[in-house]
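Appendix B, example 12.
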Amino acid sequence: MAIKEKLCIRTMLRGINEIRCVCENPPQKCTFAFYVYRDGKDIGHYAYQKQAEISYWAQEPGVYTFKVFIRDAKGNKRSQLSPPYLFESSREICCNIEPPRRRFDWLRNVGAVAQEIWVNRKRMWRVSRFSYKVLNQDAYLGSFWNILNPLIQIATYWFVFGIGLRNRRDIDGYPYLIWMLAGLIPWFFMSQCITRGAGAIRSKGITALKMRYPIATMPLEAILIALYTHLIMIAILMVTFFFFGYFPSLYWLNLIYYLFYSVVLFTGLAMVTSVLSMVAIDFQKLINSLIRLLFYLTPILWSMENLPVWAQRLLECNPCLYVVDGFRDSLLYQTAFYQHCDKMLFFWLINFALIIWGSNLQVKYRNQFLDLE
């Protein structure tokens, strides 16, 4: 049920320049966000919180108004303006006083984003499946293009690198095509996650503005769309391995771990890049350019065994290489993922850092993306 009751909002001055906005009859089980306006100009935002009151330390005289956004447990939202307050400072304010921040706010933001994803998980799955189906709906071959495009690239890379440059020479005793596919298939997934993730919010801009779409689900939706194609490509990869006489072993189960790691990694990365792309579209263009560089810096089509040791150590810090090596370890080299505990710890710390950073960016900027009226 939508929030219908009218709030009783009061503004008052405390001390020299602390303007306080208080909702005196807050609805139960709701959260509150605040916009601050001076003379009609937006000058500050407060993220959703359980407290129905905030303080703003004014630095300039003017008419201050607070816009209060109310969200209930089901995600229904509405907003209401406070009465204007005329602030006329008779004393010079010599310092820039920032509103106090609560301890562990950064952790609460992660929890808020995770909760929004969980509450809207069914909608997220439905939207991701629908978006996947309509990717190439205008083409005669339809969704088959999602598979045909990677196959054309595989044929091109194999002809240029496998036949042209390497003259069909094996790598570590394995046919080049098999070795290349074990790294190229995960790269197709990673490249789509990076590009789609960076535009996850911008691509749904109109939907978000008009339908109050849950922003936290958008990056993960972009990853799921790429995951559907990736699962089909993995099936094609396994069929190719069967054709060359390589059959399943217990080590192939490692792919489940590397799939899960990839989803978490690129969801966290998409949470960061999607917000930065909304702040400045140049960032998304930069991502599209740098991904080509990342492809050739990741040993997918070439082996780094001839590189100096320091260069190998530097390249091993690349999370994309961790996934590529993981696929090759599972399918070719018969190595379990837990045998590299140091790498495992390092790359999961990167995952957690991206998720924390992305969650706080979303909470900080989301009110700039949505018109919640």
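DSSP finds eleven helices and eight strands in the chain. Confidence is low (pLDDT under 50) at residues 92-98.
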